[in-house]
Amino acid sequence: MKRQQTSILSGQAWILLAAFLWSLIGVFSKICLEAGLNPLEIAFWRAALGALCFLIYAFIRKALSIALSHALAFLIFGIWGIGIFFASLQFSIQYSGAATAMMLLYTAPVWVALFSRLFFGEQISRHKICAIGAALAGTALISLSGGSLPGQSSWLGIACGLASGLCYATHYPFYRWWQNRYSTAAIYSLMLAGGALALLCCVPVRFSHAPQIWFWLAMLGVTTTFLAYTAYGQGLKRISLVRAAVTCQLEPVLGTLWVWLFWAENFSLTGWLGSGLVLGAVLWLSRDKDQQ
């Protein structure tokens, strides 16, 4: 039992690290958007640079031995799980604000709960159901608040945020299905490559950016993609899909804090109440020591 609890705590630590790194997506993205980059181009470079990092890492670890049919599956899934996911998130940041985008991204736990029950027979305790309910209530309040950009609301941005949540949720069961056969580096190098190739068909890619823009694009690719997904993969080896999904609810709270501090993005009272419910769901779930 003690060993199991240690594994759970270690898993949550990895997921919390991933959540912190992902919370920086809004910051780096807003810098690039303000520099005039197209949301699709930002999504492309995030996927492409992340794929490059994973490919190099997988090559060093000699982890690129993948059956052709499986490699194709990873590339095809990447069109949805990376291409559409990254693009919808960037459009949500542009139209509804980074704080709103990060919060709406975390409608994912309800989809994860459904997927984990259907595909893995994972039990969902009453405790987890309550935590998920609180998280969903929070995201609903944020949606009703109209967004976090002062004096501006966009249902398109909200729709893109919800779409990103659905795309993100499919990562959990997909990764869990393959994690015992292949390394995180092998899986995500091909998924990210598939997403990058799909995005490359949708937007012209420019190489004439200023050095500081390349720096922020690299930060998106390295910290919020390569390092974050590596930490996420370590976490999923130790804790359940649902626990990981709800623990990651810390990401939108931190993401909201960053853009509030640096860009004065602000929710209404309804939006802040929703944010509080999201954080409460994380803290509530962390008290459930009997479930992985």
Characterise the protein shown here.
By secondary structure, the protein is mostly helical. The chain has one domain. It is 78% helix and 0% strand. The chain has 14 helices and no strands. The chain is globular. 55% of the residues are buried.
Essential attributes:
globular; 0% strand; 292 residues; mainly alpha; single chain
Largest beta-sheet details? none
- Residues in β-strands, percent: under 5%
User: How many structural domains does the protein architecture include?
Assistant: 1
Helix content: over 70%
N-to-C SSE string, H for helix and E for strand? HHHHHHHHHHHHHH
Mean pLDDT: 86
Distance between the termini: 12 Å
Radius of gyration: 18 Å
- Structure summary, number of beta strands: 0
* C-alpha geometry: globular
Number of helical regions: 14
Low-pLDDT segments, ≥5 res: none
Given the helix and strand composition, which structural class is it?
Answer: mainly alpha
Topology:
Layout: H1 2-22, H2 25-34, H3 39-60, H4 68-96, H5 98-105, H6 108-120, H7 126-145, H8 155-169, H9 171-178, H10 184-200, H11 211-236, H12 241-247, H13 250-263, H14 269-286
Short description:
With 292 residues, the protein is mainly alpha-helical. It is built from 14 helices and no strands.
